[in-house]
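Reopening this ticket.

The earlier resolution said the output was attached, but the attachment link was broken on my side. Pasting everything inline this time so it's all in one place.
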Amino acid sequence: MSSHPSATTLIELSSNLRRANVQLCFLGPFTSGIVQHFGAALRVYLQQQTSDESEVTGVFSVYIEMAQNIQRYNDRNSAALAACGVGASSGIIVIGRSESRTSIVAGNWVLDAEVGELERRLKELRTLDQPALKARFKQQLRSAPSADEAAGAGLGLLTVARHGSTPIEFEFMPGDRGVSYYSLSVEV
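Inline output:
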């Protein structure tokens, strides 16, 4: 038995990704080096795909915030995630393109104990329009960050929501042993 994917598996994977309009995808450990290098490749790719610099900036900003949130969350909770049997440094970011918009979707495991507060904050962000998001962002920049915000989640989620052309979408899928799979998506 081979330890690497067969050509058939790769063809099927490529076909599935194309059908889903996936342009770029990263699956694996999120370290600061990987976040930076994938981000640099993403910026070049986006600049080749569109001349709209605001779209490039928006997609890149959302990617950076999502990737850093995964990295920081996993770093902060590595022992607890490992105890639950999930990869403490892994996650996924998928960037897709439809005719008029770019979508960015991120996913990673989170501790069940933190789902309620995160879900509350995400639901609140969905209720805010762009002027309210901008005002909240400015307010948060001026105030002392909470423990979560100091770790990057407060301003990061606001940044993701602000760059979205539609409200953010999210889902929590319960797993086993005290963890849930969290996905966050936005269209730019």
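Reporter confirms the inline version is readable. The longest strand covers residues 102-111. The chain has one domain: 7-187.
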